[in-house]
Design a protein that fits this description.
Layout: H1 11-14, H2 17-23, E1 29-31, H3 34-39, E2 53-56, H4 60-70, E3 80-83, E4 98-101, E5 109-113, E6 118-122, H5 127-134, E7 139-140, H6 153-159, H7 166-169, E8 176-182, E9 188-192, H8 196-203, H9 208-222, H10 224-230, H11 256-259, E10 268-275, E11 277-278, E12 282-290, H12 293-304, E13 310-315, H13 316-322, H14 328-331, E14 345-353, H15 356-370, E15 378-384, H16 387-398, H17 400-403, E16 412-413, H18 427-440, E17 445-450, E18 455-462, H19 467-486, H20 504-508, H21 512-522, H22 550-557, H23 559-564, H24 588-593, H25 600-616, H26 621-631, H27 633-645, H28 653-662, H29 669-673, H30 680-691, H31 700-705, H32 707-716, H33 718-726, H34 728-736, H35 750-757, H36 764-768, H37 772-776, E19 778-782, H38 785-790, H39 792-804, E20 808-811, H40 819-823, H41 827-846, E21 850-853, H42 856-861, H43 881-886, H44 889-894, E22 903-907, H45 910-915, H46 917-929, E23 934-936, H47 955-965, H48 967-971, E24 977-981, H49 984-994, H50 1001-1008
Parallel strand pairs: 2-4, 3-4, 19-20, 19-21, 22-23, 22-24
Antiparallel strand pairs: 1-2, 5-6, 6-10, 7-11, 8-9, 8-10, 12-14, 12-15, 13-14, 13-17, 16-18, 17-18
Helix pairs in contact: 9-21, 18-19, 22-25, 25-28, 25-30, 33-34, 39-50
């Protein structure tokens, strides 16, 4: 039996802090519940530390209010830690105090001045969000990051972030003109470069701002010679408290050198004023393949000397993982296998130019340099010149950090020594020793990085549930720290210090007391992200083995259960699901709410905590599921009623998990796009099955679950059903049951229409009697219950198109696909339905006929959800429409009519787009065969996602998503511009909101073919 899982109130909430904060005028959100704290307990590091609460300020005034309340005696022991995208690899934003997250509300671009090339933004603005707004002006914010679609500007400033191309563009600090910060005493300051006269005025002030400037200026003057000696001459110098760059080249004093990279230990960033650069007119990538990874590293120095924009390296492990990822469809042609097999390393050389002639000259210089045969391990190269090609290759490189987590088993590459920086000329020798160190420990690893600046990301593969592996974190960290010093480098060239702050005194030497002075001037009581970089007194800094590891939680859960719950426990925190872009399919519920709980990363964290709590009580959820299915839901009904009424169960942590799972659209974009392939719909179904073995379901659940079996009855009473769907009284009654936006049942039924056309139902025994030649001409359409009942015109169009192509079409018998059962956690019923349907489809497939589905989501269920059901795996897949058509292009074009002069656009279903990406290119090929250029629209989720948008509780999110992603495209529909949609739920949403019917490609093709 699944027990009550007791949660507890956060210390912040129980102390009355939140109440006092609101009383003082704080207008943002405050969250102290267990679910939110669980989600914010991890980042992209190996650590886990639960905060006391999370604050989401709305503006700078909220930050000032927060600081002032913290100064009150009652709250003198509380600490705060700013947090951006939460993708730090070293626990920079982890804390047991309060988290301050500006990404939810403070995400506005306040000003763009294209003449001065300056932008002013709030701290929560995402880098790619800013660059999208800048593109019409021909400008961009330069520092490049692999996490650019979710990294906030505030987070970039706090870690002085940079990545690919930093030789050319530098780091974030090189582009910060001003920072609007709030200090711990509540004072506000715009930090900009100051002339000597302006600085002289400020150091005379008697407040904290004056104290800060006096301290920093004094250190810069008194310690100039030691600073020159201690700070390495690297592109990736010591980030944070950057004493070496306090004075700009024009001799102005710039406090931003101290603030950039300070990881929230000195001030809260509210706004940033940023320098912008012109977009490069032309870009190309030369992709060089090597038989040996060390050869790629050796070659990097030669390539860098050619003054190219950047040189990025990827090893064979990352390359192999990329080949299994969604990105490979777009880039595979640029990394072909050689005679000797696959490449064991690549260099990606970026070239930028102002015009085509300059581009050709630069490309020629690079090719000439390595065409001399000086490196026998160099296999070959390709050149990407088109913008979409360049972007696709960079997308692969950006996904490298996440791809390393996409391996089977508990031993996985982890980040803790993966951003070391050494002089580029020392990199190859340094990496040889690094690899020898890891080889000596018997560890595998993956490597990628920025060889032009001497930074290579190395992630040793460990299972941190094992004591021997957790001890290796200390051993390897110490060894690598010593190794970087030997080769004149630093331990943290890119991803900040965070938990690794224990090495700060060693690297800064006798300058460390100066860092302490600076911290003391800004934050004398150590209230801002304490334990990181510097302490104002003798308080110790964090150590790599003093902060709880994620592995401690995973050890409690156990590997078998971790594997059984669809990678939830293996989410590495990379945060690819935090993508701000509304045209990206992942993750719709996060995009609509900006609530990090409602993301794959958030849901995975909650599932992992739920599994830990069960393990603590000795409960195996797999055994509970088996027991439940054996006894049936009626056996547990009395207990569910009692549990639902028992007030002691109100604090059950499971309720918070369920609340978060309720907002999942089950679109499976995460399963296709997450680098680690975390599949929320899969583990959500398992959770719901067990949750509702303890508590009563809402009324809408059994109605939705039974929809496939009740639709035939609804068609018999069509007028009564439409009365409920179309009238205000009926709609009110349905809302009481939890349902809304129900589609209209058309007068024409599929059965009647196909009977008139003489289309028979596919019967295996009848097919077996046909000759092999006859069966080759048969295509069996497998319509889902929703398309068949509510949109039969699509199925009829498919049948007529098949006839025009010379096929003999049949219809599959009515069946239960079971998708709705699976989504809502009726897994026992789903398995029964899946086995029955799979058996029927298997018999059809064995007869040698072709099976073609209609709706992509329902069709792909045969390949995904059915995989988890024993004896429910058809040996032949039910094809998607485009898979079938692309295999029969000759028949299609033979029947083609005259060329159409209309514009054709396609809005694919999210599941199809993310889980069958090759299928989208097939649609383009099909229309090209008819001499029609098809545009596949890059849009996010329509918001309907099966039954999600039909549920009253979800309707607001559903309509918001439609407005964000689909509304403008559907408004562009006209007689001359045809916008098609492959998903039934998508077409239903457009009809419900805009009263526009988007045709299925089958319907359009049937009209185009004679």
């Amino acid at each position: 039996m699944i027990p009550r899982l007791t949660s507890h109130l956060a210390p912040a909430a129980s102390s009355g802090f939140f109440e006092r904060l609101i009383e003082a005028g704080f207008t943002g959100d405050a969250e102290g519940r267990s679910a939110a704290r669980t989600v914010y307990a991890t980042d992209n590091s190996i650590y886990q530390l639960e905060p006391a609460g999370i604050l989401f300020p709305k503006d700078v005034e909220d930050l000032k209010t927060l600081a002032k309340v913290l100064c009150e005696p009652a709250f003198s022991g509380m600490t705060i830690t700013p947090r951006g995208g939460g993708t730090g690899t070293n626990g920079q934003s982890l804390t047991s105090g309060l988290v301050v997250d500006c990404s939810r509300h403070m995400n506005k671009i306040l000003e763009i001045d294209p003449v001065r090339r300056v932008a002013r933004v709030e701290a929560g603005v995402v880098k790619d969000q800013l660059n999208r707004a800048l593109k019409p002006y021909g400008l961009f914010f330069a520092p490049e990051l692999s996490t650019s679609n979710r990294a906030t500007i505030g987070g970039m400033v706090s870690t002085d972030a940079c990545g690919q191309g930093s030789c050319l563009y530098g780091k974030t600090s090189n582009h910060v003109l001003g920072l609007r910060v709030v200090l711990i005493d509540g004072s506000e300051w715009w930090s900009r470069a100051l002339s000597e006269a302006a600085l002289a005025d400020i150091v005379e002030r008697k407040d904290r701002i004056g104290e800060i400037h006096r301290t920093v200026d004094g250190i810069a003057r008194e310690k100039r010679e030691r600073i020159e000696v201690v700070f390495p001459k690297l592109n990736r110098y010591m980030t944070g408290y950057d004493l070496a760059h306090i004075r700009q080249p024009d001799a102005r004093f710039d406090l931003n050198a101290i603030l950039c990279g300070s990881e929230g230990t000195l001030a809260m960033i509210a706004e940033a004023e940023l320098n912008l650069l012109p977009l490069p007119a032309h870009a190309a990538l030369i992709n060089i393949r090597y038989s040996d990874f060390n050869a790629a590293l050796e070659d990097a120095r030669t390539l860098t000397e050619l003054k190219v924009a950047s040189v990025e390296t990827v090893d064979e492990k990352v390359l192999g993982l990329a080949k299994k990822d969604i990105v490979w469809n777009d880039i595979g042609e640029f990394f072909p296998d050689d005679v000797t097999g696959s490449a064991n390393g690549i260099n990606i050389v970026e070239i930028l130019a102002d015009d085509e002639a300059e581009m050709e000259r630069k490309v020629g210089e690079v090719i000439a340099a390595f065409d001399n045969g000086s490196n026998p391990d160099r296999l070959g190269y390709t050149i990407a010149r088109q913008h979409h090609e360049v972007e696709a290759i960079w997308t692969m490189r950006k996904r490298a950090v996440g791809l390393l987590g996409n391996v089977d088993g508990p031993v996985r590459p982890v980040a803790f020594v993966e951003d070391t920086a050494v002089p580029p000329e020392n990199l190859a020798a340094y990496i040889r020793e690094f690899r020898a160190l890891l080889d000596g420990a018997g560890l595998s690893y993956g490597m990628f990085g920025h060889v032009d600046v001497g930074v290579l990301h190395v992630r040793p593969a460990l299972d941190l549930t094992r004591n021997d592996h957790s001890l290796l974190v200390r051993q390897i960290s110490d060894d690598v720290a010593a190794l970087t010093k030997k080769y004149g480098g630093v331990l943290w060239g890119e991803h900040g210090k965070g938990v690794r702050s224990e090495y700060v005194p060693e690297f800064f030497g006798d300058l460390y007391p100066c860092l302490q002075e600076i911290k003391r001037a800004f934050d004398p009581q150590n209230r801002l992200n304490p334990g990181k970089i510097a302490s104002p007194s003798a308080e110790p800094l964090w150590k790599i083995d003093s902060v709880p590891l994620r592995g401690e939680t995973d050890r409690v859960i156990g590997n078998d259960i971790r594997v059984a719950f669809d990678n939830a426990a293996y989410c590495n925190g990379n945060g690819a699901c935090f993508d701000f872009d509304e045209t990206s399919p992942m993750c719709p519920s996060y995009k609509a709410t900006r609530d990090r709980r409602f993301s794959p990363k958030g849901r995975a964290a909650l599932m992992r905590e739920w599994l830990r709590l069960l393990a603590d009580k000795g409960v195996d959820p797999r055994a509970e599921a088996r027991r439940l299915r054996r006894h049936g839901w009626l056996a547990v009904l009395p207990r569910r009623i009692l549990n639902s009424l028992d007030p002691r169960n109100r604090a059950d942590f499971s309720h918070e998990v369920r609340e978060v799972m309720d907002t999942c659209l089950a679109c499976k974009a995460c399963a296709g796009q997450c680098p680690v392939k975390v599949s929320v719909p899969a583990f959500r179904s398992k959770f719901l099955e067990l949750y509702y073995s303890r508590y009563l379901r809402p009324l809408k659940d059994p109605l939705v679950a039974a929809i496939e079996t009740t639709l035939p009855w609804a068609r018999r009473i069509r007028p009564l059903y439409n009365l409920a769907a179309d009238t205000s009284l009926g709609q009110r009654l349905m809302r009481c049951a939890g349902l809304t936006a129900l589609p209209h049942l058309p007068k024409t039924t599929l059965q009647a229409a196909t009977a008139q056309l003489g289309i028979a139902t596919a019967v295996p025994e009848v097919l077996d009697k046909l000759t092999a030649a006859e069966r080759q001409h048969i295509v069996v359409f497998v319509p889902d219950a929703f398309t068949a009942s509510f949109d039969p015109a699509v199925v009829l169009a498919a049948i007529k198109l098949a006839q025009k192509m010379g096929f003999s079409p049949l219809l599959a018998a009515p069946h239960v696909n079971g998708k709705a059962l699976h989504v809502h956690g009726y897994l026992g019923q789903f398995e029964k339905a899946a086995r029955k349907t799979a058996s029927y489809l298997q018999r059809l497939a064995e007869s040698g006929v072709t099976l073609v589905g209609i709706d992509p989501s329902m069709t792909l269920a045969f390949r995904s959800e059915y995989k988890g059901v024993p004896a429910a795996k058809p040996s032949a897949s039910v094809l998607l429409p485009q898979e079938w058509l692309s295999a029969n292009l000759e028949r299609l074009t033979r029947s083609a009519a005259s060329v159409s002069d209309k514009r054709y656009q396609l809005l694919p279903h999210c599941t199809e787009r993310t889980n069958a990406p090759v299928a989208l290119a097939q649609w383009k090929t099909i229309f090209e065969a008819l001499q029609i250029e098809l545009e596949t629209i890059q849009a996010g989720c329509c918001g309907m996602a099966g039954t999600f948008g039909h549920e009253t509780r979800n309707r607001a999110i559903s309509e918001k998503l439609y407005a964000m992603s689909w509304a403008d495209h559907m408004a562009a529909t006209s007689d001359e511009a045809i916008v098609m949609a492959t998903g039934y739920s998508c077409r239903s949403q457009a009809k419900a909101i805009d009263d526009v019917r988007a045709p299925h490609p089958f319907e359009v093709l049937e009209r185009l073919v004679a």
